[in-house]
Amino acid sequence: AQSVAQPEDQVNVAEGNPLTVKCTYSVSGNPYLFWYVQYPNRGLQFLLKYITGDNLVKGSYGFEAEFNKSQTSFHLKKPSALVSDSALYFCAVRDILSGFQKLVFGTGTRLLVSP
Amino acid sequence: EPEVTQTPSHQVTQMGQEVILRCVPISNHLYFYWYRQILGQKVEFLVSFYNNEISEKSEIFDDQFSVERPDGSNFTLKIRSTKLEDSAMYFCASSEWEQGADEQYFGPGTRLTVT
Prior knowledge:
The structure holds two protein chains of two kinds. Chain A is mainly beta. Chain A has a single domain (3-114), classed as Immunoglobulin-like (Sandwich). In chain A, 0% of the residues lie in helices and 52% in strands. In chain A, a hairpin with a 4-residue loop joins strand 8 (64-68) and strand 9. Chain B has a single domain (5-114), classed as Immunoglobulin-like, CATH 2.60.40.10. Helices cover 0% and strands 50% of the residues of chain B. Chain B has strands at 5-7, 10-13, 19-24, 31-37, 43-50, 53-57, 65-68, 75-79, 88-95, 105-106, 110-114. Chains A and B meet through strand 5, strand 6, strand 10 and strand 11 of A and strand 4, strand 5, strand 9 and strand 10 of B.
């Protein structure tokens, strides 16, 4: 069965500094990997995905993520954090081998960007 | 930009009552989903729906739950006899194609409170 781990409940970073939100996954075969962001009282917004090809994928709002197959990781990054990036971030995986559509989510990481 | 909408935003019901949560997926999408998020916990998959039938469901989705696409636009989740532990945020999502690479777009959620 597929699973996702987000080892940090919270990440604190100062505005203007680079940020990293960590994610590791476990699947039977090759994964499709996704990052979503959740602002207070809002639904989940899609940020970016890895399907195949280049290990560095770019997404919305200046975010990017690096797929590392050997470390089974898909960390979310941004070169320069903004206060408005403060939100809850979820990593999710879909197992291609299973043939199913469901997303399996991690527990989420709260990002706090201080001015 | 098209988006998934959900009604109501908040539903309070008494234990044992039936509730129907409503969703309008993005109009050209073919796959529909329900997820739930119990307060402080991760987002969990409930069910996926394609071509007017359930394509996948989780262990949570027992006989108390049902889904329906009653017309060309709405997608509903019914809980027949609510329990206290059904209290959660329920998210509807949709995706364009049946291919696993497509991201799912989430609605803002319905907060269900069972008293």
